[in-house]
Amino acid sequence: MTAVDYLIVAAAAVAASWTRMGIALLFSIIFSLIVGTAAGTNRFFERLAIPVLDILQSIPILGFFPLALQFFYFLSPAVGSEVAAIFLIFTSQVWNITFVVYESTRTIKTELLDTARFLGMSTLDRFRYLYIPASLPRVLHTIQPSWANGIFFLVGSEILSFGETEIELFGLGTLISRFTAAGDTVGVIVTLAMLVLATVLTTFFVFIPLTHLTEPRRRHGGEVSGLRLAFRRLMGVARTIPVHPGHAFSEYNKAVAGLVRHVAFISSILRGVLFFVLGGFLITLFIARGEELLARVAAIAETINAIGLNTLAQSSLYSLARVGAAVVFSVAWSLPAAIAVARRPKATAAVTTVLQVVASIPVTILYPLFASLLAEQDELRAFIMIISATQWYVFFQVLSGLRNIPAVELEVADLLALNTMDKIKTVYLPRAMPALVTGCITAAGGAWNGLVVAERFVLGDFVAETRLPGLGKLLSIMTYGGNLVGSIAVITIMSTLIVLMNRLFWKRMYDSVISKLKIQEQVGR
């Protein structure tokens, strides 16, 4: 191939991959706005949705392979492979955005919510004029790390392999895999250069302009934040609603007086109905397919027994240690770095631009180039892979949270002549904590996701794995070996660990941070 041929093929591969990722990102945003808002505003739905999202965001992309292949591809071989690839990319992008919408919705100021209730706004109006404006700044800041995570799993999304079934879609991941397998160094370098160029252009012409749209704007000497804009939109809607003051307050007081009684009654009915519906469905399913279900459960139990409880326990502990180390490392540098950047607005654009470009360069595609340099350092290789899938979640989440600090709080800190450490303790850290916890939750999910390539990386004929065991390594072996029951068994164990961590640790920490922030806001008023 000539140099021109390499460039044309690489450019076409970028176009194909970027199209898939763009479609997946669009669906991710739509899904996140709907589900995240519902979870943040409805306690009953929150109890159902958040544990499910915790599991889904932490299931490695290989865990979705059987579903993507058996449902989408075999449903329609003509377009099913493309739909399967987009679905897999979607699973690597969506959860981070959904948790951001959930957090943004839960931290909306109480006076805005009270105003919306007082005006009797419909659910759709609140969604349009309150929840979307409050969530959009954080969503637009989160698009970039979600896009980078999609690139991280691009190879796995475009090369669908499960047992003897293997489907290759034309794109960056497939092209680099082919060049690597063929030993075509020129092809690999040209494709990587095209990837970096596309990443830089996308960052400068898409991500940075989008984030600038949400920057606080100066008007009449004051800053207008996303929530203030939401309040102004709310007031704009209020002007179009004919309301008699006495009647409005009368209806509002009636609603407040009966709130506890009605909510408790309706909630208990809904829980009872849901319990009986699910119970009836499970009983019917067991009667109709009882033997098959028992056979599958027995097969999973046999597989777990064949793998060995000792092996599974060791794999779980090693994977948990790797995930914990990656999250701690990410917080250790991201929190002080984000505070430093947020305190220097003039340097923010330049620093974030450089970091956005670096974050978008996929370590998975560069892996074969540095794997040989760390041939004997398998744990270091794995650690680099895991933090590349986690650290940017924490940094960009915290930075976007700090950008939403009300201007009045910073002005008061300046009037009181607080020193740097006092400002950090009283202003920056309290405002950063909700975003930090959200960043840690999504970073932990990204780490569990990244285990499957960190503990055992497969690119064509190139395979690199850790000597010590791990759940990601086990899942990779089961998936590429076509062992569906084994994959389900490993995913079940991984999901159980994730749910326990989220319910016993992350959920309690998140609720504590949110309640403290709400109390501080109440005291501040």
Brief descriptors of the model:
6 strands, 21 helices, transmembrane, transmembrane helix, mainly alpha, MetI-like fold, 525 residues, single chain, MetI-like, membrane
Structure report:
With 525 residues, the chain is mainly alpha-helical. It contains 21 helices and six strands. A two-stranded antiparallel sheet has the order 1-2. A two-stranded antiparallel ribbon has the order 3-4. The chain has a two-stranded antiparallel sheet with strand order 5-6. The radius of gyration is 25 Å and the shape is globular. Residues 217-231 and 237-264 have low confidence and may be disordered. Keywords: Membrane, Transmembrane, Transmembrane helix, Transport. Belongs to the binding-protein-dependent transport system permease family. One of its GO terms (biological process) is transmembrane transport.
Number of domains: 1
* Percentage of β-strand residues: under 5%
CATH fold annotation: MetI-like fold
Q: Which CATH first-tier class would you pick? A: Mainly Alpha
Architecture (CATH level 2) name: Orthogonal Bundle
Portion of residues within helices: over 70%
Q: How many beta strands in the DSSP annotation? A: 6
Query: SSE order in H/E notation?
Result: HHHHHHHEEHHEEHHHHHHHHHHEEHH
- Global mean pLDDT: 76
Low-confidence stretches: 217-231, 237-264
Q: What is the terminal separation in angstroms?
A: 69 Å
Structural class: mainly alpha
Tertiary shape: globular
Largest sheet: 2 strands, antiparallel
Say which CATH homologous superfamily is assigned: MetI-like
Radius of gyration: 25 Å
Q: What count of helical segments does DSSP give?
A: 21
Largest beta sheet: what is the strand line-up? 1-2
Pfam families: BPD_transp_1
InterPro entries: MetI-like (IPR000515), MetI-like_sf (IPR035906)
GO biological process, one term: transmembrane transport
Organism: Caldiarchaeum subterraneum
